[in-house]
Amino acid sequence: MVAEGALELPVISVNNARTKTDFDNLIGTGQSCVLAIADALEEHAMAVGERYQGVFGTRWVVVGYGPVGVGVARFAAALGARVTVVERDPVRALAALHDGFEAQSTEQALPVADVVVSATGVWHTVTAAGFELLREGTAVAVAGGSMTNSPSTIWRRTVGNQLCAADTLVSGSNPVPIAGHSARRRRWRELHRIRG
Q1: How far apart are CA 193 and CA 195, in angstroms?
Q2: What is the DSSP letter of 137?
Q3: What are the pLDDT digits (tens) for 40-82?
Q4: How far apart are CA 134 and CA 35, in angstroms?
Q5: In whole angstroms, what is the distance from residue 7 CA to residue 3 CA?
Q6: Each residue of 129-148: pLDDT tens digit?
Q7: Pairing of the two strands 176-181 and 159-165
Q8: Which of 51, 107, 54, 50 shows the shortest CA–CA distance to 84?
């Protein structure tokens, strides 16, 4: 019950608002994730004494072509990346083709990727079998999601060891986490660097 004379305000579910998916996910998350991935890769390269070449000319694979995936693909392409989309929904895959991107299966796209971005908001988008397809030095990142269902960490594949991630032991590969962030803030910050 509202007291007499009190202002009654509506309750708005921001997470279900069209502005959330059409603008925040598409533009805000897409842009901030691409720039954060590029920054994290540059910082990692400097830390390990490598020369960072930038996004231009690199091969990015975006898994999922919903609002976040569309944003990631567009901003990576705007920086000069060659973008391939992996999307199970045939209509979204067709949309990716009409937007100027390649659409392939994970088996086709992952072996040639320099950067793989999961934009589905779902755990295990890149499976253990998917990690086995990656070349040495490929970065894998999660864009969007929440800390409870999709921690955003950037991994870089190295060869020769083992990885225990998401309760799956991946033999023959050892992705090294190089950066993490709070997806709730929509702002990527490097929280820690794990030396490996």
Answers
A1: 6
A2: T
A3: 888 888 888 888 889 999 999 999 999 999 999 999 999 999 9
A4: 22
A5: 9
A6: 888 898 888 888 888 764 34
A7: unpaired
A8: 107
Encode pLDDT of 26-44 as tens digits: 888 899 899 988 988 888 8
Beta bridge partners, 9, equal none
Separation CA 50–CA 123 (nearest Å): 31
How far apart CA 163 and CA 148 sit, in angstroms, is 21
Is pLDDT of 90 > 90?
yes
**Long-range contacts from 20-29, C-beta under 8 angstroms, 24+ separation:** 21/67, 22/67, 24/186, 25/66, 25/67, 25/68, 25/71, 25/144, 26/67, 26/68, 26/70, 26/71, 27/71, 28/71, 28/186, 29/67, 29/68, 29/71, 29/72, 29/143, 29/144, 29/186
